[in-house]
Design goal:
mainly alpha, flat
Length: about 300
């Protein structure tokens, strides 16, 4: 906000410089072109400027405020829909109206939704109901007042991403006459999941151990962060225990990169053996063997 002296000074300089906006603003460093034109028009009309600024009245009446807030309450508490239908006001202005007229309606959420803490008992009960559900996962998520992805995140947190999200299914048309066999099947599925988790943990442990032995890496290093050459050495060291597909997937190593580095490693081993043989031939002939004879001996 500019004082009366600043405004009158700007208008007088504008008149003195022949009503040139750019020159006036460059000399003063203020205001904008439209603001200066407004001051000039006010000065011409009243032969003076008002001493201070008067607050402009609200653009919207009280009735418009109440109508907008009531529309929001009657149509599903959706701000976007209300603004689209009425065409006014901005989202920030409407939020202020809502806080002013009905502060109890809106629930303010600071940060992201996952910051809301749920008790572990609630998570376990929801995941258990998800695994043995008769209804959809969406209905279970609504029951605990979370979204469907959050429910599956709880399942991954408690059971692991490999665990199935549905242990048993009920088919009303063809019910299982033998519930005992059904429970045995469920237990076998759980055993298979646990065995898979154990094998994955054992694979991670063996990778860390081999990285420490072969590459002299610390046990805390993540094998996935190693270079492709080092990953290839780890795969070669463990491929007699685990399948190639498991190792490549765990290390996030492309199959083409693995075979490329395998050929490079074999080539380097071949060159190293050739160098050793060449040195042996040279020293066994009293260090006076020419390179042509060494080459023919190697061939």
């Amino acid at each position: 906000m500019y004082s009366y002296e600043d405004r009158i000074k700007a208008v007088r300089l504008y008149l003195k410089l022949g009503k040139r906006l750019g020159v006036t603003i460059r000399q003063l460093g203020y205001p904008t072109k439209n603001t200066l034109i407004g001051w000039y028009r006010e000065f011409i009309a009243k032969q003076s400027l008002r001493a201070g600024y008067n607050r402009s009245r609200d653009r919207f009446t009280v009735e418009q405020k109440q109508h907008a807030v009531q529309h929001y309450l009657d149509h599903g508490h959706c701000i976007a829909f209300t603004l689209r239908v009425l065409g006014y006001p901005s989202r920030d202005t409407f939020s202020k109206w809502l806080d002013e007229l009905h502060p109890e309606v809106r629930i303010r959420m600071v940060g992201r939704a996952p910051n809301m803490q749920h008790p572990m008992e609630t998570k376990k009960a929801a995941v258990l109901e998800l695994c043995i559900r008769d209804t959809s996962a969406e209905e279970i998520a609504k029951k605990v007042k979370v979204c469907r992805p959050t429910l599956y995140n709880w399942k991954n947190e408690l059971l692991g991403p490999e665990a199935p999200a549905l242990i048993k299914r009920h088919h009303e048309s063809t019910p299982d006459p033998n519930p005992r066999s059904q429970s045995v099947t469920e237990l076998q599925q759980q055993v298979n999941v646990l065995e898979g988790n154990i094998r994955r943990l054992q694979l991670e442990h063996d990778l860390l151990k081999k990285a420490n032995e072969l590459l002299k890496k610390d046990l805390g290093v993540a094998p996935q962060l190693l270079g492709n050459r080092d990953k290839t050495m780890l795969v070669d060291a463990l491929k007699h225990i685990y399948s190639l597909t498991e190792l490549l997937a765990e290390l996030k190593l492309a199959r083409s990169s693995y075979f490329y580095h395998c050929s490079r490693l074999r080539m380097s081993d071949k060159y190293a053996a050739a160098r050793v043989a060449m040195v042996d031939i040279f020293h066994s002939n009293y260090r006076c063997y020419g390179y042509r004879r060494i080459r023919s001996a190697l061939l």
